[in-house]
Amino acid sequence: MQRTKTGWIAVFLLAALVAVVFVLWKPKGGWQPQTATDPLTQTAGKSWTPPAPLQSARAMKYLEQLCAIGSRTTGTPGMVQQQQLLQAHFEKLGGRIVWQSFQHRHPQTGQPVEVKNLIVQWHPDRTERVVLCSHYDTRPFPDRDPKNRTGLFVGANDGASSTAALMELGHAMADKSIKIGVDFVLFDAEELVFADQKGDYFIGSTYFAQQYVADPPAYHYRSGILMDMIGDKDLQLYYDKASFTYAPQLAREVWDIARGLGLKEFSPRVVHDIRDDHLPLNEIARIPTIDIIDFDYPTAASRTRSYWHTMADSPDKCSGDSLTKVLAVVLEWLKRQTP
Ligand SMILES: [Zn+2]
To answer: Domain range holding 277?
Structure first.
C-alpha cells in the first residue's frame, strides 16, 4: 500500500493538529508517568479510608506486634505470650474472655499438648449470636521455604493477619448499631503440622464445633465468618467452594456488601476449594459459615513464587488497608444483622 503526495500533507496537518491539542489540553499537575499496571492490582493503589473507628495503621501495628513475638505454635512459649497479649487487649476493649482448653496428642512427641481456643464475647446477654473467627496459631515450620524448611515462621499473613483484624474490630464493638450478639473465636491448632504433613489440621475448631453440639449453650449461633490470610498487599478474595456449598446466601450477602462499598478486591466467583476451620463449623456444628480467604498471594499469576508457608510470610508483604477493607465489609454485615 502506498500514499499519494496530498495524502502525506493531510497526514502532516492532522499530526500537527493532534500536537497542538496535546499541548493545550494539559491536565492540572502536569503529565504523570504511566506505569504498567497489573489488572489485579488496579484498585490497590487507590486511596482508601476505612469507616470509623477502623484504622489501617493501627491494624497493621497489631499484625507487627504479633509477628514480633516470633513463632506462635500451639503449646509453645510464643503462643502463651500471644494469649496474654490478646486477653489484655480484648478485656481493655470490654470483651468477656472465655478460654476453651483441652489436651491433644502432640504429633511429634506423642505427649499431651494444651490447645486453647480464645472466645471473646460482646454483649454476652444476647441469645442470638454470630461467630467471627480466625486461627491464631502458626505453623511450626516454613516447610515450603525454598532454602530453610526449619527456619522461623512468623505467619504474618497466615495467622497474624486475621488475628490482628479481630484486634482492630474490637474497637468497633461498642457501636450501638450492632444489635446482634457477637463472639470472636480464635482457634488454636489450625495447623499443628510438621514436615511430611505429620500432624492434624483444625484441632481447635473441631473441638469448638463438637462442644457446641455435645453441650449446647443457652445461646444460638446463627452464622459465622471465618477470616484467614487477609493481609496480603495485593488482596484478591473469591468465594471458596465449601463456603458457597454450605452458606451460599451468606456468601452472596457479604460479597454484595463489598460491591456496595466499591471494594473490587472481592470477586463474586468460585475459584478455590479450601479446607479450613469453616468446615467443622458447617459440618459438625451446622453453623452456616463462610471463609474470607486470599489464597492467591502474591498474585494469581505467580503461585509458584507464593510466600505461603515460607520464611517470606513477613509483615512487609501485608497492608493495613487490606485488613480494614475486609473489616469494613464484616462491620457493615454485623450492623445488618437483626436479632
Ligand atoms: Zn497455613
So the answer is: 49-335
Q: With bands split at pLDDT 50, 70 and 90, how would you rate the model's confidence at 298?
A: low
pLDDT tens-place string over residues 154-185: 999 999 999 999 999 999 999 999 999 999 99
Confidence of residue 3 (pLDDT cuts 50, 70, 90): very low
Ligand 1 center–CA 135 separation, angstroms: 9
Residue 20 lies in a domain: no
As residues whose CB is below 5 A from the ion ligand 1, the structure lists: 139, 158, 191
Span from the CA of 204 to the centroid of ligand 1 (angstroms): 14
Q: Cα(202)–Cα(15) distance, rounded to whole angstroms?
A: 66
Instruction: For residue 277, report the distance from its CA to the centre of ligand 1, in Å.
Output: 11
**Identity (one letter) of the amino acid at 292?**
I
Q: State in Å: Cα 200 to ligand 1 middle.
A: 12
Q: Is residue 10 in some structural domain?
A: no
* Centroid of ligand 1 to alpha carbon of 194 (angstroms): 11
To the nearest whole percent, how much of the chain has pLDDT over 70?
A: 84
Residue 303 CB contacts under 8 Å (≥ 6 apart), including other chains:
296
Question: What would the grid cell of residue 27 be?
Answer: 491536565
CA of 229 to the centre of ligand 1 (A): 8
192 within domain boundaries: yes
* One-character DSSP codes across 47-89: ---PPTT--HHHHHHHHHHHHHH----TTSHHHHHHHHHHHHH
Q: What is the mean pLDDT of residues 1-22?
A: 47
Number of domains in the chain: 1
For residue 334, report the distance from its CA to the centre of ligand 1, in Å.
Answer: 27
- The domain that contains 265 carries what CATH number? 3.40.630.10
- Residue 97 bridge partners (DSSP): 120
> How many angstroms is it from 93 CA to the middle of ligand 1?
28
Q: Letter for the amino acid at 256?
A: D
Residue 323 in any domain: the answer is yes
Judged by average pLDDT, the poorest of 45-59, 90-104, 285-299 is: 285-299
